[in-house]
Amino acid sequence: MQQQLAAVVNSLEDAQGRLRRLSDKVSEVAWSRHPSPGKWSAADCVEHLNITSRAYVPLLRDANTEARLLHAEPQKKYRTDAIGWFMTKMIGPMRHIGKVRLVKIKTTPKFVPKGGQSRSQLLSEFVRLQADLITLIRSADGLPLDRVKIVSPFGGRMKYNAYSAIVIVARHQHRHIDQAEEASHAH
Fold it and tell me: Which domains does the chain have, with CATH numbers?
């Protein structure tokens, strides 16, 4: 598998492992606790990631199909485009300076978790969606993903290439797993 795609797959597998370890070590109360009013619980973070993956999977499936139709030589190196690069920086893991969190982004309403799912339901769906994402990435090996654009499911106007999209998904997962860890350990 192409090295950059393998790195994204490894990142997704790492995110799944981190989430499993978090779930294994926190109580049901901690899993569902909101650290303060308006802040997401660990459960909310996972639900948001599931909503996000459900939005990206069909976009990436279509991007793979479109990339295959280009009949291009196998890709040796992928590039994020300018908007994709910016989004990977904005949506990636949270950054802190002391106790100040940098780059807070508010999500669009359709990606806000509704609650009501059990931990096992959330984790089962997360694992299933991870498998879908990883399968799509593996099947895209060598395809010109950086020559195919998708419309961001978050805004509808923003476009970036499909390689940028898979990097965004992986970095976004780590951001919200950071947030879930923080929420579950808040007292």
Answer: 3-185 (1.20.120.450)
